[in-house]
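ParB/RepB/Spo0J family partition protein
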Amino acid sequence: MSEKHEEKTAPTPLPKRRVGGLGRGLNALIEGSYEKKGERLVPHPANSVGLIPVEQIEANPYQPRTHFDQDALQELAESIRIQGIIQPVTVRQTGPAAYQLISGERRLQASKLAGLETIPAYIRKADDQQMLEMALIENIQRENLNAIEIALSYQRLVSECNLKQEELGDRVGKNRSTVTNYLRLLKLPPAIQIGLRDTLISMGHARALLSVEDGQQQLNLFERIVAEDMSVRRVEQLVRQGLSPAPKATPGVQPQGEQPVVPPAEIKRAERHLSDRFGSRVQVKPTAQGRGEIRIAFDSAEDMHRILNILQPA
């Protein structure tokens, strides 16, 4: 056999891969999970993992999370730039080149911020009800939802997926009493639910407030908890004692030794205003004595100097 003939029949060398595949997360492992059709890369059928263009994935209409911390999202995006995607998102296929997200909203958003064109995804078959159930359960188990988002997710599983509380507990790995405690949070007045969502109060505070039957008394105690920075134990003591009221002030006269209490709504407005002003997380922490502190978060020495420059007088 001639050398010329050997050159014609020699196998085509495989394309060179970029060194450092481990840093690219799952992309390095599943680049071969595509079928080449013309100029398009087509992932394997349902119940497989493949790389999908992020522009082909639409948001999950059943997403239980309503708020994403932008700073945490930026941190995740930076991690993805360096390490790649470690865990695939979950999608269902809705068309030839269209997918709908089931779970992994934060990873998808962060991947877009990181400039990724494709993302590893686990493709599943699911109808609308199955998708709702999977989305809610996977988010409850894997995401850091706040207490109200968890409660709303539990309520949707009960009402829209026709799950009993015992079945729900089995699905999410919680006992029935835990599920019941979360569902009870939805009986609190909206203002208190918002306070719990925004971490003005804790789950322990909310559970103590549920022991108060009168809605107005709940609201009054909620305002005292925020204004006086009460501990859960102190709130529980007040509830057991029958809600001993705070001293009533004569109109126009401030009780001796006490200063005006800043309303919770005004605190939140101040935090939002200052966060926008400094481009960082800001917390306003008042006390019952009219004092308090303002905390401005920074991510690095450079970020600290940036904030100090803003504080310098013009």
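thats it. Residues 1-24, 28-41, 244-259 have pLDDT under 50 and may be disordered. DSSP finds 14 helices and nine strands in the chain. bye
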